[in-house]
TrEMBL record:
One of its GO terms (biological process) is rhamnose catabolic process. The lineage of its organism: Bacteria, Bacillati, Bacillota, Clostridia, Eubacteriales. It comes from Bianquea renquensis. One of its GO terms (molecular function) is ATP binding. Keywords: ATP-binding, Kinase, Nucleotide-binding, Rhamnose metabolism, Transferase. Residues 6-245 form the Carbohydrate kinase FGGY N-terminal domain. InterPro entries: ATPase_NBD (IPR043129), Carb_kinase_FGGY (IPR000577), FGGY_C (IPR018485), FGGY_Carb_Kinase (IPR050406), FGGY_N (IPR018484), Rhamnulokinase (IPR013449). Residues 257-447 form the Carbohydrate kinase FGGY C-terminal domain. The keyword Iron-sulfur does not apply. This is Rhamnulokinase. Belongs to the FGGY kinase family.
Amino acid sequence: STKTAYLAFDYGASSGRLMLCCYDGHTIDLEEIYRFPNEPVWMNGHFYWDFPRLFHEMKMGLKKAASLDVEIAGIGIDTWGVDYGYLDEDGRLISNPFCYRDPKNAKAMDEMDVVHPFKEFYEIAGLQKMDFNTAYQVYYDVQHRHYILDCAKTFLFMPDLFAYFLTGRKACEYSIASTSQMLDARTRNWSDALLEKIGISREILPEIVEPGTVLGELTDEIVEETGMKKVPVIAVGCHDTASAVCAAPLESENSVFISSGTWSLMGMEVREPIITEKSLQYNFTNEGGVEGTIRFLKNISGLWIIQNLKKKWEEKQPDVSYMLIENEARSAERRHFIIDPDDARFMAPMNMVKEVQNYCEEQGQGRPETIGEIALAVYNGLAEKYRQNVVDIEEITGKTVDVINIVGGGTKDRLLCAMTAASTGKAVKVGPVEAAVLGNVLMQMKALGQLKDVAEGREIIKRSFPIETFN
Ligand code: LFR
């Protein structure tokens, strides 16, 4: 047939999956061929990713793909941002990477702030102040785990690590590197000034490659183990949010996106970084996108709190689904509860239900008791953040926002979509759900010459998936 097939690995903070994506010259269709949980492990006061397990799952996915008897043109990998690992001189992974919710990060940020004021970083990197930014994590390594840096020969971000173990090629992809607070947002390269402040040697940082670069083919070992052919691995927008925005069917320069999932990444696609007094004051971030774009956005806690409420409720009531939570929130009796979803206390609490209840009580709102009331406190908090964010974006950019495009897994939450339209007063367009996977595929297609540019890719997305409007 004339169909071309691609494999897209999309690793999120709670699960990962492998999608088979076929393009017939007109539309793209997707099939999930493998899914697995991703559970960071809490061990002696720290949160780690289980990297060998995640790599194992990658190979299981490839095995499954190999058994399908489909010709695969390329493989792309995207993951959450900021996290990384070190390789020794023989390419062995030194220590399991930390999870970005590790409590050491807040401490590291405070330590670095004392020596190097945040403003010095912001002026160059243009990144929002978040304690998990790679710069703080690496600063922690420099200060408290120097033995690791003593034998580290290569630094790689999470998707780069996977690509390295598949192909043997060591490179840092630009969009993921742009989440580190170690790049100069304007030159799009490592910033020597920032590296010096952090105390990491430039020598262990590999070259930065653009999204859409063919990294290399699967190694013989991987081919042997999985039954795959010698397929090329392509650096896509390796940061999941870069991929999601790549596939967002934005219609104009006044469109705002929300990449909705565990986090809500809300902002605009712009041509040049916006690093001003105001963007600093409002704590906006400039992350690197595909085709030289900048994702000017704010990182807002997203459905993370709802996900963790669900886990807690499931312990007593196994049939609690997202649908049920949504419906309970729609019909909740007392509707005034509201939290600040970005309050640090919601980052990784032991009991999310109590945390939300206590917050409301401490704020003088009374205590939400039912599933509906507790969930609504979160929904109200998110909707209010979105509203404020639109106001801030309009003020900073001087533009008037016309449409908000919501993409990603969070679009399945129809209550949140409706509340977004209501709170912002803007037209909201919803879809596609699988934005990260689709952006991943678009950049593979571009790398292999099947696509002229992202604009053409977004037209394919619009043809292939329903986009719904909420007013
Ligand atoms: C979304 C995301 C965000 C990033 C957060 C932590 O999955 O990649 O963009 O800020 O995870 O890495």
